Amino acid sequence: MSGAAVPAPAFVALTTAGCDLARSLAAGFAGAEVHGLAGRTEDAERTFDETGEHLGELFRAGRPIVGLCAAGILIRALAPLLGDKRAEPPVVALAEDGSAVVPLLGGHRGANDLARALAERLGVAAAVTTAGDRRFGLALDEPPAGWRLENPQHYKAFVADLLSGCEFRLADGADWPDWLRDAALPCSAAGTLAIRATHEAVEGSARVLVYHPLCLAVGVGCERGCPPEELIALVRDTLAGHGLAAGAVAALVSLDLKADEPAVHAAAAALDAPARFFAAPALAAEEPRLATPSELVRREVGVAGVAESAALAAAGPHGSLLVPKTKSRRATCAVALAPGPLDPAAI
């Protein structure tokens, strides 16, 4: 499945036939479970007595749902719970004979991809109805892994203009990301709409969608017991002071000695980015690339710099130091730029 990762689906079956199909399909999804209506299904991993109540519990918990039942059952059970479409989990209706697969909710949060994956296994076509997917072959509000839409609140108006015949251009003459180049989008140098792909902090609008590649690594160091608010302020001020987008940060990184430091984890949470940590030898290898090596830091932690070294190590051998070490009273921060989106799980 493309885009942001979602939890494994719960296959909810109401009959023996539905339960049999659910078990065969769930085997293809790591962590998936089969939930069956008590008294009507056999060998389900979980059973329930009241269908609407169980569906509601799964939905409120953010669990993707594949309902092997009529779409109307899912609609009636979940309609009272609908609110922010950007927060709802994927919900897919699947005919218990496998003849139809319909993404009902959360189309751009994984339901469309889930429906397509199920349909491919069943040898049928997924009934994807979201307009952008059907017309352009991608969902502009669900960029692929490694990218983030900065202004999702403007997506609906932007796509409505595209669907009505407006063309778009890529702002600033930047190179096209592959995922946009391969889409069937109506583009023109004279387009009245624009897409910006940048790691810089820029504002979007109903006529300009801004996408950030997750290509920035923010390296930090701090004294033991540094106040979280100090490190958070330093990181935010450093990014803002250099015109860099917080939405382009792939990870906040440091030395493994700081792995239990609350301030580091608080700063990562403030950026909505994972915290990652390197052992000293990995940071020592970056010393030739440091802008401000420090013998004092070497004496204290064994490497000539923490913030710059960690940022460079995360950005990789082809990355570059974008912002040298910046200091507050008890903390340091540096930013490195990778040549493309980073995978935090690989750092």
Explain what this protein looks like in three dimensions.
It is a single chain. Strand 11, helix 8 and strand 12 (249-255) form a beta-alpha-beta unit. The relative contact order is 0.09. It is built from 12 helices and 15 strands. The model is unreliable at 1-5 (pLDDT under 50). By secondary structure, it is an alpha/beta fold. Helix 2 (51-60) packs across helix 3 (71-78) and helix 8 packs across helix 9. The two termini are 22 Å apart. The longest helix has 14 residues, at 228-241. It is globular and about 70 Å long. The strands form 3 sheets. A 6-stranded mixed beta sheet has the order 3-2-1-4-5-6, sandwiched between helices. Strands 13-12-11-15-14 form a 5-stranded mixed beta sheet, with helices on both faces. The protein has helices spanning 16-26, 51-60, 71-78, 111-122, 131-136, 155-163, 178-181, 228-241, 262-271, 280-284, 295-301, 307-315, and strands spanning 10-13, 33-37, 46-48, 65-68, 91-94, 101-105, 147-149, 168-170, 193-197, 208-213, 216-222, 249-255, 275-278, 320-327, 331-337.
What is the count of DSSP helices, taking H or I runs of 4+ residues? 12
Helix content: 25-40%
Output the structural class. alpha/beta
Order of helices and strands: EHEEHEHEEHHEHEHEEEHEHEHHHEE
Average pLDDT works out at 88
Q: How would you characterize the largest beta sheet?
A: 6 strands, mixed
| Uncertain residue ranges | 1-5
**Roughly how many Å is the radius of gyration?**
24 Å
According to DSSP, the number of beta strands is 15
Spatial separation of the terminal alpha carbons: 22 Å
Strand content: 15-25%
* Mass-distribution shape: globular
Widest β-sheet, arrangement of strands? 3-2-1-4-5-6
